[in-house]
């Protein structure tokens, strides 16, 4: 026979496991709510004229001050776009670049995920350290 504190401990563990499962399921559902569409990302990249600064196929920037984007990880690109969108409204998270801030203001989070998927799909000259 279990003592009262052991029974309470067992109930608490079960409740925590249930909450964790529900939270994880919600997180998975939220991420699946918008599967990134690279073809829409290409349309957005063309519409926003990303190649004007980042060059053909977003791999040959017109200035060394601009990054090569082609092949960059989608999660990194998405977060960078979100940071530009936040701009100086959140100095701890935002990126301060007036050109990029203006480019991303009209984008939804889904649009940014689509752009990120498109950029990741491109062949690029990025080199990963081994």
Automatic annotation (TrEMBL):
SUPFAM superfamilies named among the record's database cross-references: Cytochrome c (SSF46626)
Upper taxonomic lineage: Bacteria, Pseudomonadati, Pseudomonadota, Betaproteobacteria, Burkholderiales
Source organism: Paraburkholderia sartisoli
Protein name: Cytochrome c553
Record Pfam families: Cytochrom_C (PF00034)
GO molecular function, one term: electron transfer activity
Signal peptide stretch: 1-35
Assigned keywords, A-Z: Electron transport, Heme, Iron, Metal-binding, Signal, Transport
All residue ranges annotated as the Cytochrome c domain in the record: 36-123
UniProt keyword Transport, yes or no: yes
């Amino acid at each position: 026979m279990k003592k009262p504190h052991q029974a309470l401990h067992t109930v608490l563990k079960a409740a925590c496991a249930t909450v964790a499962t529900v939270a994880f399921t919600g997180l998975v559902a939220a991420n699946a709510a918008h599967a990134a569409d690279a073809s829409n990302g290409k349309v957005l990249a063309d519409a926003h004229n990303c190649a004007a600064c980042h060059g053909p196929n977003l791999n040959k920037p017109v200035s060394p001050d601009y990054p090569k984007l082609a092949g960059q990880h989608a999660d990194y690109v998405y977060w960078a776009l979100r940071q530009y969108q936040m701009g100086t409204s959140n100095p701890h998270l935002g990126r301060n670049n007036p050109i990029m801030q203006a480019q991303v203001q009209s984008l939804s989070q889904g649009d940014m995920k689509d752009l990120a998927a498109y950029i990741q799909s491109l062949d690029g000259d990025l080199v990963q350290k081994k």
